[in-house]
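PROTEIN DESIGN WORKSHEET
SECTION A - STRUCTURE
LENGTH: 150
TOKENS:
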């Protein structure tokens, strides 16, 4: 895998590379002037990240001098899997009381044949939209004509 260093239009030289949150390789640069103590990163997808907080600066400080060194470090790094303890499968014991309650609930539910069919009644239908539009036009014409005369 012979990847070359990404070309950047930055005036500052590339100090190293590391992996961006999006998964691409980003270049790490040192700022000049008043901000010379800070690093910044440039990613092809995410753009430039110039955040100066401790979290981001510690992320930028963890960089590799070349892409080959980055790939070697990623291959050598062990895959971390969650080390959480597996939760035991605990099934609650069913007591006689629970069984009686369950049976009572099943018997109390109405069966489809027991339900009454509701008559098909339509709620009061709203007047159609065109009637409202015509009423609005007529009302607007009357009030507009009265306002224009005064």
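SECTION B - SEQUENCE
RESIDUE ASSIGNMENT:
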């Amino acid at each position: 895998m012979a990847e070359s260093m990404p070309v950047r239009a930055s005036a500052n030289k590339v100090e190293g590379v590391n992996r961006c949150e999006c998964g691409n390789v980003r270049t790490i640069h040192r700022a000049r002037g008043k901000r010379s103590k800070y690093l910044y990163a440039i990613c092809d997808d995410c753009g430039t990240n110039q955040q100066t907080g401790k979290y981001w600066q510690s992320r930028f400080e963890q960089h590799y001098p070349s892409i080959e060194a980055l790939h070697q470090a990623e291959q050598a790094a062990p895959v971390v899997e969650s080390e959480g303890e597996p939760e035991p499968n605990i099934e609650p014991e069913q007591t006689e009381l629970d069984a009686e309650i369950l049976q009572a609930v099943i018997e109390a539910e109405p069966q489809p044949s027991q339900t009454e069919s509701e008559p098909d009644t339509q709620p009061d239908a709203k007047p159609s939209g065109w009637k409202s539009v015509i009423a609005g036009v007529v009302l607007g014409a009357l009030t507009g004509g009265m306002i224009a005369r005064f």
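SECTION C - NOTES
The mean pLDDT is 75.
DSSP finds four helices and four strands in the chain.
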